[in-house]
Write a structure and sequence with these properties.
Layout: H1 3-16, E1 24-29, E2 34-36, E3 51-57, E4 65-68, E5 74-75, E6 83-86, E7 90-93, E8 102-110, E9 121-136, E10 141-145, E11 150-152, E12 155-159, E13 163-168, E14 171-172, E15 179-181, E16 187-189, E17 198-206, E18 209-220, E19 224-227, E20 232-235, E21 240-242, E22 245-247, E23 254-259, E24 262-263, E25 274-276, E26 282-284, E27 293-300, E28 309-321, E29 327-331, E30 336-338, E31 342-345, E32 350-355, E33 358-359, E34 368-370, E35 376-378, E36 387-394, E37 406-411, E38 415-418, E39 423-427, E40 432-434, E41 437-439, E42 446-451, E43 456-457, E44 465-467, E45 476-483, E46 488-498, E47 506-512, E48 517-522, E49 532-539, E50 552-555, E51 562-565, E52 573-582, E53 585-586, E54 593-596, E55 615-621, E56 626-631, E57 642-648, E58 654-661, E59 666-669, E60 677-686, E61 689-690, E62 697-700, H2 711-748, E63 752-756, H3 784-791, E64 794-795, E65 801-802, E66 822-826, H4 838-844, H5 846-865, H6 868-893
Parallel strand pairs: 1-9, 10-18, 20-28, 29-37, 39-46
Antiparallel strand pairs: 2-7, 3-4, 3-8, 4-5, 6-7, 8-9, 9-12, 11-16, 13-14, 13-17, 15-16, 17-18, 19-22, 21-26, 23-24, 23-27, 25-26, 27-28, 28-31, 30-35, 32-33, 32-36, 34-35, 36-37, 38-41, 40-44, 42-43, 42-45, 45-46, 47-48, 48-51, 49-50, 49-52, 52-53, 52-54, 55-56, 56-59, 57-58, 57-60, 60-61, ...
Helix pairs in contact: 2-5, 2-6, 4-6, 5-6
Signal peptide: 1-28
Domain Fibronectin type-III: 504-600, 613-705
Domain Ig-like: 15-108, 132-218, 223-314, 318-409, 414-492
Length: 894
């Protein structure tokens, strides 16, 4: 019952006995002195009568203090030595305690009076303010097993009542999965681990002060290595030292050291040279190269599983030769290797060879070379390779000496008697035997079968690979390996297991944009049936997400090996995998590929650079696909980072390629859906800016016919035909003109001047040189010098220089011929027949006309495809051809 309730009870009692005095309230601090007041009232006549003073504590029926005049007071043992009268009836209490708090009653008994005893008396309430003190605390040290739990109880007393809290390393503990704190001051530590060891403090605090009690928790469990060993490197014959420090409770630690997997005391060559100190240090005396390897420290205290920590010992030593064989077998007339089995740390730097006791200079032998490890490679082993070889290896620390001699022996390599076929196809569950046999000298080769990439399979009976019941895992490429002391040879075959689910797709590639990803892959073996694919994807979840990882799947149309996944979130990590299925079921998933979608570009209110879109986007169909070309954006000062090409079949734009380098302005769109209408557009990217789209071009993916010619070629042919028609028309008019001139010459009696060679006496034919006809009459005629300078000399086919020729009229004096040339005159034959008809003259000129036509065609092609210089060069032959044509018309017409 609290003191307020007690006060109510006392007030009721006092009111019944007509006590005029009000109760007193006294407050003291623990350890101090206090006086509880009590007055004595004498009769009105003033006589001093004897009296007895009694002090009661509420709730106790007998007084704890009685005093009568000069006699010693009677005091309860709880108050002995601490109480005495102060004045007539007041009570003084020394060294006030917390338990002294409560209601006190003072009674004064007058021995010679007959009135109410309660008239002389009073009630006093004593309040004792005390700092917190503990009434119950846990031990200073407590032990608990690792993985268990423990409860620490702490109770405190004080006035006012203190609040009890628990602290660890200065942090107040609250209830959670590890700790449970109750209102009565107890602390429970659950699932105790090594990290929970240490000091726990119980703190009781109030307005009067605080009290703290600390308990240290000792966790019983296996040791914990606080200083693991570290890798060390020593030279041969030096000492090696590994340190290993562990902590545990109880601390009766023992250390065990292992070399690889063996106890160091169980290794014959090591047990006499090692010592383990009490603190766990391992010392290896006089280290040898064989001591190198992994050393493991394992401390133990007989509780739980002992931990371990490893470190590596590296031993450096001069280069040495290990196990040099006395005989070295090499294949005859095949590449061979003469090995020097070197062991060195640091690695070998050079190897010196001797053959038959003399230094071997490899460069003097054709086809011989020394490998990085010092071995000798022989391109083709012949009798010249025979001999006795020794080698001396060197490294940075030197050498341990020369190798034993080894004799080189030539042997024939093994060969296959029976080779496996190129491929085998068999249904799953059926039996299959793949034969393979080999022979060789000096012994029969060993046959082993191995599957390419997976682990090796040991040899089968009769050197054949036998499958009792084929399974899906047996599918793949197999190799038969024949090995003897000379060399190894292999024969490959491929096994197709029919009637299984598909194999996993390979080489999955994902190219992501802001909201989509282009997934492509290489299909695996279909199991003998048509297979289809589906793409599975989902966002990457954090480790804190405990929910299920839901993936979405998108079927792939047809048998295509790519798919564009839409509807992705920007700046999000996604995982992709491809699954194949056929009528027998689904195969395994492909490897999982993780990509991040691109973040949307952040547009600034006032961009510093205005990025314009690419220009002049065009699309041309080719046999390989659609060729897209464009021009860079105009009026941009900063360089472009890359281009993006998008396409659409319907209303939604999709990314074709978003990583086109800035220095490229064309791309080939392949693998388009046949007979579809595609639209393309281009965008430019610079830093965080993306331009608006370029012009949109559309093109059909219908296959282009192989027939027909390109427009430039057609234009060239049309131009050539037109030019040829004009040439024929011009030639016809020229023939008419020449024929008319010829008739006029006959009427005027023109003489022809021919040049005759003085050596042969024959005149030159027009077939030997290009005839230039100069008619001197009746029109004005050039002088011989002008004619000679104009037409120059011609060269015959036999290399002789042809002289100029002249034609003069009978009206002019004869010309002086060149030296060595004998001119002669001929009168026109009046009896010669009339000139041939025009069509006959043109027929006679047909060869020259045909050559002209070919030249025109050649010139037309040149106009279409050749540079201007070649056009001039080739078309000059056309004009020369027309010169011959006109000459033939003139001669034949005459």
């Amino acid at each position: 019952m609290c003191w307020q309730d007690q006060l109510l009870v006392i007030s009721l009692m006092l009111s019944n006995f007509y006590l005029l005095e009000e109760p007193q309230f006294v407050t003291a601090r623990a350890g101090e002195s206090v006086v509880l007041g009590c007055d004595v009232s004498h009769p009105l006549n003033g006589q001093q009568t004897p009296y007895v003073v009694e002090w009661f504590k509420f709730g106790v029926p007998i007084p704890f203090f009685i005093n009568f005049r000069f006699y010693p007071p009677h005091v309860d043992p709880e108050y002995a030595g601490r109480t005495s009268l102060h004045g007539k009836a007041s009570l003084q209490i020394e060294q006030v305690r917390s338990e002294d708090q409560g209601w006190y009653e003072c009674r004064v008994l007058m021995l010679e009076q007959q009135y109410d005893t309660f008239h002389n008396g009073s009630w006093v309430h004593l309040t004792v303010n005390a700092p917190p003190t503990f009434t119950e605390t846990p031990p200073q040290y407590v032990e608990a097993r690792e993985g268990g739990s423990i409860t620490l109880s702490c109770t405190a007393f004080g006035n006012p009542k203190p609040v009890v809290t628990w602290l660890r390393e200065g942090e107040q503990l609250t209830s959670n999965k590890k700790y449970m704190v109750t209102n009565d001051g107890s602390l429970t530590v659950q699932a105790i681990a090594r990290e929970d060891r240490g000091a726990y403090s119980c703190r009781a605090h109030s307005d009067q002060g605080e009290a703290v009690h600390t308990t240290r928790l000792l966790v019983q469990g296996p040791p914990y290595i606080v200083a693991p060993p570290e890798n060390i490197t020593v030279n041969i014959s030096q000492n090696a030292l590994f340190t290993c420090q562990a902590e545990a409770y109880p601390g009766n630690l023992t250390y065990t050291w292992f070399w690889e997997e063996d106890n160091v005391y169980f290794k014959n060559d090591l047990k006499l040279r090692v010592r383990i100190l009490i603190d766990g240090t391992l010392i290896i005396f006089r280290v040898k190269p064989e001591d190198a390897g992994k050393y493991t420290c394992s401390p133990s205290n007989s509780l739980g599983i002992s931990p371990s920590a490893s470190a590596y010992l590296t031993v450096q030593y001069p280069a040495r030769v290990l196990n040099m064989p006395p005989v070295i077998y090499v294949p005859r007339k095949l590449p061979g290797i003469i090995r020097c089995p070197v062991d060195a740390n640091p690695p070998v730097t050079s190897v010196r060879w001797e053959k038959d006791g003399y230094p071997l200079r490899v460069e003097k032998y054709p086809g011989w070379s020394q490998m990085p490890d010092g071995s000798i490679r022989v391109a083709e082993v012949t009798e010249d390779s025979l001999g006795t070889y020794t080698c001396v290896p060197y490294n940075a620390l030197g050498t341990m000496g020369q190798s034993p001699p080894a004799t080189l022996v030539l042997k024939d390599p093994p060969y296959f008697n029976v080779r496996p076929g190129g491929e085998y196809r068999q249904e799953a569950g059926r039996e299959l035997v793949i034969p393979c046999a080999a022979s060789g000298d000096p012994e029969i080769p060993t046959i082993t079968w191995r599957k390419v990439h997976p682990t090796q399979l040991t040899g089968q009976a009769e050197n054949s690979l036998q499958f009792v019941s084929l399974s899906k895992e047996d599918h793949g490429e197999w190799e038969c390996v024949a090995t003897n002391v000379v060399t190894s040879i292999t024969a490959s075959t491929r096994l197709f297991v029919i009637g299984t689910s598909p194999h996993a797709p390979a080489n999955v590639h994902v190219s992501a944009s802001t909201t989509s990803a282009n997934v492509s892959w290489e299909p695996g073996y279909d199991g003998g049936f048509e297979q289809t694919f589906s793409v599975w994807y989902g966002p990457v979840k954090k480790k804190t997400d405990l929910g299920p990882h839901d993936w979405l799947s998108v079927p792939v149309p047809g048998s295509q090996t790519w798919l564009v996944v839409q509807g992705l979130e920007p700046k999000t990590a996604y995982q992709f995998s491809v699954l194949a299925q056929n009528k027998l079921g689904t195969g395994p998933f492909s490897e999982v590929v993780t990509v991040n979608t691109v973040v949307y570009p952040v547009s600034t209110p006032e961009p510093l650079v205005l990025l314009t879109p690419p220009r002049c986007l065009t699309a041309n169909r080719t046999q390989q696909g659609v060729l897209l070309t464009w021009l860079p954006p105009a009026n941009h000062t900063s360089p472009i980072d890359r281009y993006i090409i998008e396409f659409r079949l319907g209303e939604r734009w999709e990314v074709l390629d978003d990583l086109i380098p800035a220095d490229e302005t064309e791309i080939m769109a392949r693998d388009l859906i046949p007979d579809s209408w595609y639209e393309f557009r281009a965008l430019a990217v610079m830093d965080d800016l993306i331009s608006e789209s370029s012009n949109v071009v559309g093109v059909s993916s219908t296959e282009i016919s192989d027939e027909g010619l390109a427009r430039p070629v057609v234009a060239g042919i049309v131009a050539t035909i037109c030019f040829l028609a004009a040439a024929v028309l011009f030639s016809t008019l020229a023939a008419c003109f020449v024929n008319k001139q010829h008739r006029r010459k006959l009427k005027q009696g023109c003489k022809w001047l021919f040049l005759k060679s003085p050596q042969t006496g024959k005149s030159f034919s027009h077939l030997d040189f290009m005839m230039v006809l100069v008619v001197l009459a009746p029109c004005s005629h050039p002088s011989p010098s002008i004619s000679a300078s104009l037409f120059g000399s011609l060269v015959r086919s036999d290399g002789h220089l042809l002289p100029p020729l002249y034609c003069v009229s009978h009206r002019r004096p004869p010309l002086t011929p060149l030296p060595g040339i004998e001119p002669y005159w001929e009168e026109p034959d009046r009896s010669m027949p009339a000139p041939a008809p025009l069509f006959q003259q043109m027929a006679l000129a047909a060869p020259s006309c045909l050559s002209c036509m070919l030249s025109v065609l050649w010139c037309g092609a040149t106009l279409v495809r050749s540079p201007f210089g070649q056009i001039i060069h080739r078309c000059s032959y056309v004009f020369l051809c027309f010169d011959f044509f006109f000459y033939d018309l003139g001669v034949n017409g005459s």
